[in-house]
Please model this.
Amino acid sequence: MDDAAQAARVRLPALGPAGRVVDSVHAALRAAILDGTLAPGQALSVPELSRQLAVSRSPVREAVLALVGNGLAVETPRRGAAVAGLETADLLEIHEIREGVEAQAARLCAERAGDGVLHRLAAVLEQQRSVVERDDARGWFDTNADFHGLVAEGTGNRRLAEVVRSLQGQMRLGLRRVSADREQRCRGLAEHLAVLDAIARREPETAERLMREHIQRTKETLARRFG
Model:
């Protein structure tokens, strides 16, 4: 099957006129990649995506380039862009980066975060508790990204938060491999609650250690299951 025929099999909703068109296109394509509607290796045909989303080609082209920059798509010779297919080695490398960056984020968050960030973190984990109880996989991935992003935001370090955000999509693709069952998600929630407790108590060293251990366990699960 050629790329055009393959792309035509995917059904994406037309976009409404809200916000910058390129941002809406990027959000729609990112969501389709993360939920598996656009599968790894699938060509991102600008004409076909433009037709399905009912927008011009220019914002689609720009959004696809942004996906390449985020690591969710790759440029392939003679074929243009395609959805990234992350191997286990790629995911382990990503988690090595996360281990250092997010452990430091937890330390700085414990030192610097205001009460507003702490309240938002608590609200996210209350929501995560609910999605775990409902066995809601998609809700788990959303709240997981929100929690880690908020910890980074709580550092007050804009560049550190940008690094964490840039890895979130790739991280989520990896978590789909290791957080597929309720037991894994229950453990993840418990670890998140422990990290938040250390942050709220203003215990930077403990927060750093717990976040590092949390990410190490995910990395070890990846290596054990798929290495």
Summary: The first helix runs from residue 3 to 9. The chain has a mean pLDDT of 87.
